[in-house]
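Recall from the previous lesson that a structure prediction takes nothing but the amino acid sequence as input. Here we apply that procedure to DNA-directed RNA polymerase from Cordyceps poluscapitis. The sequence below is the only information supplied.
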Amino acid sequence: MHSELANYLRRCVEGNRHFNLAVGIKPGTLSNGLKYSLATGNWGDQKKAMSSTAGVSQVLNRYTFASTLSHLRRTNTPIGRDGKLAKPRQLHNTHWGLVCPAETPEGQACGLVKNLSLMCYVSVGSPAEPLIDFMINRGMEVIEEYEPLRYPHATKIFVNGTWVGVHQDPKHLVDQVFDTRRKSYLQYEVSLIREIRDQEFKIFSDAGRVMRPVFTVQQKNDPETGLEKGQLGLTKDLVNKLAQEQADPPDDPELKMGWEGLIKAGAIEYLDAEEEETSMICMTPEDLELYRLQKAGLSVDDDHEGGDLN
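The prediction returns the following C-alpha cells.
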C-alpha cells in the first residue's frame, strides 16, 4: 500500500494533477489482506509468509450447533505432537468438572487438544479495590502500617497475589467476605481461599481462571432464610419457581429467575481449582444426609458404609 501511494503521488506531481487520497489507495488492499490472514491464520505480509505468525485465527466450525460450541471451548497444549510422553496427555485430578474427560481427538493430538466441560466458566475479571476498602473497614491493617512484633500470628491477606494487609480475627473476616459473595454484593467469580496452616487468606478477582458451579451448603443457621446448618441452598421454593417459569414464562425478561437468579439467591456459587482444594465438596445429596446423622451422634447403617452412592 505504501509503494502504491508513493507511485500515485509521483505521477500526480509529474503530471501537475490534483492529489486525491481515495484514488491513491485501492479499496481492496486492506480487505484482501485481512481476508487472507483470517482465512489462513498467518498474520503478516502475504509475500513473506514464512516470517508471519501462524495459527492466530481459525475458521469457526459451523457444521452443527454442538460442533460450534465444541470449537469455541477447545483448549490446546502447545507441545509437539510427535512426542511419546504420556503425562501431558493424561487427565489430572484438578481437571475434575473443568475439562471434559471424553472429548478429545484420536491420533497424535489425543489428550493434547481438550475441551472445557459444559458448565465450565472462564472468569472475565473484576476490580479488587472495593473489596480491599471493605476489608479495611472490617479491621484489616494495611501492610504499610503492619508491625510484625506486635501481631506475630496475624493472618496475611493477598489480593491477586499482592500482600495488602493482615487481620487479627481471620475467621470473622472470611465469614463476612463469603457472606457478601453469596448475597451477590461481591462478584460471583471472585475466589476466596483461606490457608489455615499457612495463616493466609488469598483472594483472586483476575481474568482467565477456569471455574465450575456447585450447589452451596449452609454453613450456619440462618434465621432470615430459615435454612439450618448442613442444608442445601437450593430449596424447594426455588425449584418450584423455576418449574413455574418453564411452564408459564413471564412477559418481562427481567422478572425471570433462571441461572442468574440462582446465583443471586446464593444457591449456586463458582469455584476455581485453587478454591476447590480448600472446600469440602459432597458428591451426592446422600453424603449430606450421612453427615447430618453422624453430627447428631446417630449410628449409620451398614448399607450406607462403603456403598456406592453414585
